[in-house]
Design brief:
Blueprint lengths: L12 H16 L12 E6 L5 H12 L3 E6 L11 H9 L4 E5 L3 H10 L4 E5 L5 H15 L6 E5 L5 H12 L3 E5 L10 H14 L2 E5 L2 H5 L4 E4 L12 H8 L6 H6 L5 E4 L11 H4 L6 H19 L4
Parallel strand pairs: 1-2, 1-3, 3-4, 5-6, 5-8, 6-7, 8-9
Helix pairs in contact: 1-5, 1-12, 2-12, 3-4, 5-12, 6-7
């Protein structure tokens, strides 16, 4: 059966751990895997812009002995000139994997429905599973475990990264406080809350949405934030959003409210003086560039898993 990765909960907890363990092995011994995907091709479909995502997938495929094709659909979105069914069916005749970074979840879902090769979600408006894999690889490196810790998230909760962070925290039985402004436009969608609630019943996770930043920081092992200006938000809203989100900025006081050995994470891009201060992101507790690097290693492991290479 063809497997896809559209949201982090498409994989089981055991599969996520297996992929992260393989990523650790690949990071330590990259030459051991330099021909694992020899002769294979990854098609990367981009509707949203990208820096780390494109580079990490393209380099990752090259390091595995395969080839990656970058294809921009910015000026010709999926389903406009040709329906997604035909695009997926045709592309699958040429390549072994498809990865897509799209605006709309339904386009990604349709692509996966009709593609006869594995499809990887590089980001849409509902999930960012590759980011979570890289993040939890980083957490394992820095904390030595993937269980029994608390995460404090700060900022926009109507957000693909937040959604998958909530899902994976629920799957691993973690505590997660999502600190965000009040108002429907800043809160997680109900469908996500329902999924997370169901996952938490099975694992004992405690996932809560709160509106006080210091409550979220208290007892946290990890402090996490994301951009206040996600792709698609009009630039004219920037000042308004800055004022709304400023109470959720990660400052040194927020870091001090967490555990003494807490680490700071941001999936990048980061804007100093917005979602976090310069002092925090450039400080000794910040591991944002380890996060960025680990996208490479975790995505290599994802591709091998979906190609049934381990």
């Amino acid at each position: 059966m063809i497997r896809h990765l559209l949201k982090i909960s498409d994989f089981s907890k055991a599969e996520i751990e297996k992929i992260i363990n393989k990523a650790v092995e690949m990071k330590e011994n990259p030459n051991k895997f330099d021909s694992t995907l020899k002769g294979e091709t990854l098609l990367m479909v981009f509707e949203k812009p990208s820096l780390r995502t494109r580079i990490s997938f393209e380099v990752g495929m090259q390091q595995l002995g395969g080839h990656a094709i970058f294809y921009s659909i910015k000026d010709s979105p999926l389903g406009r000139k040709e329906n997604i069914h035909d695009t997926a069916k045709s592309a699958a005749r040429y390549v072994n994997l498809i990865a897509a970074r799209l605006f709309k979840r339904h386009d990604l879902w349709d692509l996966a429905q009709y593609a006869e090769v594995p499809v990887i979600n590089m980001l849409d408006d509902f999930a960012h599973p590759c980011q979570m894999m890289g993040d939890f690889l980083t957490i394992k490196e820095k904390k030595g475990r993937l269980e029994d810790f608390k995460i404090g998230y700060f900022g926009d909760a109507y957000n693909n990264v937040t959604y998958d962070l909530m899902r994976i925290a629920a799957m691993f039985g973690l505590r997660l406080d999502v600190a965000c402004p009040k108002g429907a436009e800043f809160l997680p969608e109900q469908v996500v809350l329902d999924e997370v609630s169901q996952l938490s019943k099975e694992t004992g996770a405690k996932i809560e949405v709160v509106h006080n930043a210091f409550d979220a920081a208290k007892d946290s092992d990890i402090i996490y934030t994301d951009s206040w200006m996600s792709y698609g938000i009009p630039i004219e809203k920037e000042e308004e959003r800055r004022k709304i989100f400023m109470p959720y900025q990660v400052t040194q006081k927020i870091m001090e409210a967490a555990k003494p050995d807490a680490i700071f994470m941001n999936c990048l891009p980061a804007k100093r003086g917005y979602e976090q201060t310069t002092e925090v992101i450039d400080g000794s507790q910040s591991f944002v560039f380890d996060q960025a690097e680990n996208r490479l290693h975790s995505q290599k492991a994802i591709m091998l898993f979906l190609r049934e290479k381990f």
